[in-house]
Amino acid sequence: MDFYYLSASAPCRSVLMTAKAVGVELNKKELNLLEGEHLKPEFVKINPQHTIPTIVDDGFVLWESRAILSYLVEKYGKDDSLYPKDPQKRALINQRLYFDMGVLYKSSAEYYYPQYMHNKPADPEAFKKVEAALEFLNTFLEGQTYVAGDHLTIADISILATVSTFAIADLQISDYPNVDKWYANAQKVTPGWEENWEAVLEAKKWFEAKKNSKQYN
What we know:
It is a single chain. With 217 residues, the chain is an alpha+beta fold. Helix content is 59%, strand content 7%. The protein is built from 8 helices and 4 strands. It has helices spanning 10-22, 41-46, 65-76, 87-118, 124-140, 154-165, 177-189, 193-215, and strands spanning 2-5, 27-30, 54-57, 60-63. Strand 1, helix 1 and strand 2 (27-30) form a beta-alpha-beta unit.
């Protein structure tokens, strides 16, 4: 299975962890977005939206990370534990996935990407949305070990990829005690966590070098 990705990307890392969980080996093809590799004709032919992550599974092309997560489990999972077929359990997982996409990940991307990718100043109003998203997650996790149900699911994996990225910006997860407790457990029980964390640390080094370069230029 070909996997077009960028290791610094949280959505891409969620696919890496889910693939690990279901035992799928990925043929990794990292794209340098800053160099415009995602805009090359050969990739645009595969994915007209030229977004990552994108998979090609024996000719079947799919993008959007959360769609990929559910596909991997439904096609390759040994059981349905990561994405249960029970309508209510699945609905809750879907809600958390949409929350990640439309609130948690979205708020973090809108706050951090302009700073790290375009050297923009931090926007305090945008940061308030990050804090609000984490407060929501903290509420969801009240009395819960997992974000959707009583065991690890793709909702945990998707949100874990997002939350771990906050380490790049030194955001204090400990300010959100339920999230902090969930985060510590998720690191222990999620397959592929080590690779995810290595990618986060590499991204942090890159962003810090870019920030220092900006300061001294």
